[in-house]
Specification:
The protein has 255 residues and is of the alpha+beta class. The protein has helices at 43-66, 107-110, 212-219, and strands spanning 34-40, 77-79, 83-89, 98-104, 117-119, 123-129, 134-139, 144-145, 156-161, 172-178, 182-188, 195-199, 203-209, 230-232. The strands form 3 sheets. The chain has an 8-stranded mixed beta sheet with strand order 2-3-4-13-6-11-1-8, with helices on one face. It has 3 helices and 14 strands. Residues 22-34 have a biased composition (Basic and acidic residues). Residues 1-36 are annotated as: Disordered.
Length: 255
């Protein structure tokens, strides 16, 4: 049984399940992600920005370990598959959006990739990389690359097979590589598949969830948890080799 991904109505079978999995064979994206190249920075400048933002996330996690959030209050330091997260700006009555920072894990160092997934509400994501670090952005649908807002090297894009599909099933995966020392914005419509994997130690996401509180009410969740708005398209995570390619000839030899 597959789960509908229409843009109205509830999307989750079990609202409080934080690891709900949708059969990828039946999923069809209702729209496309849109990616906008923003700016490329000198390596030292990019590293300064990344270190400052990642430092906020790490400090929040240290504080959560020392003084855990009281029961019933949103836990602002959380853990996602792609990295550690700090809810920088929580929602409040009359303002249904929140904003979080993510300190990416280095998939090469951990030898594991995050899973393809979708959300029950739309997202706006700014991805930032520092020296010697890239982010591979993936989707089951082609990613629309909008014109750059200023001078920006062309982005590498390519397609491959989604790993970890059920036996006999093949799904094409579309990929764009965010280069080092770059800022790239991504608009993610509700219900559209996406996957982020950083290769290298310096990567941060600054993300806004404009429907987060509404999602909690619409999906019938018993509490406010960011992971509760996520639906995965694979049961297990795959090895780092499945998300390390960058689409360049030296990383994708002829087959």
């Amino acid at each position: 049984m597959t789960q509908p991904t229409e843009t109205t109505g509830r999307m989750k079978r079990s609202p409080d399940h934080e690891d709900e999995v949708l059969d990828v064979r039946g999923h069809r994206d209702p729209d496309r992600n849109r990616l906008t190249p923003v700016v490329q920075l000198p390596p030292k400048t990019a590293l300064t920005v990344i270190d400052a933002l990642a430092g906020l996330v790490r400090a929040a996690h240290r504080q959560e370990g020392e003084r855990p959030a009281p029961p019933g209050e949103p836990k602002r330091a959380q853990v996602f598959e792609e990295g550690d997260v700090f809810m920088l700006e929580p929602p409040f009555p009359g303002f249904f959006a929140d904003r979080y920072l993510m300190d990416f894990y280095d998939t090469a160092a951990r030898d594991i990739c995050s899973r393809m997934h979708l959300h029950t509400g739309l997202r706006f994501v700014r991805m930032m990389t520092g020296p010697d670090t890239t982010i591979r952005v993936s989707s089951l649908s082609p990613i629309t690359i909008r014109p750059a807002t200023g001078p920006f090297a062309p982005l590498a894009s390519f397609a491959d097979d989604l790993p970890g599909t059920p036996d006999g099933a093949r799904r094409e995966r579309h990929n764009v590589i965010v280069p080092p020392n770059s800022w790239v914005d991504m608009q993610i419509p509700r219900g559209v598949s996406h996957q982020f994997n950083a290769v290298g130690p310096h990567a941060v996401i600054d993300s806004v969830h404009p429907e987060e509180s509404i999602e909690t009410l619409r999906e019938g969740m018993s509490g406010y948890r960011m992971m509760a708005q996520t639906i995965f398209l694979a049961k297990d995570r795959s090895p780092a080799a499945t998300c390390a390619d960058t689409g360049t000839p030296e990383t994708n030899p002829p087959r």
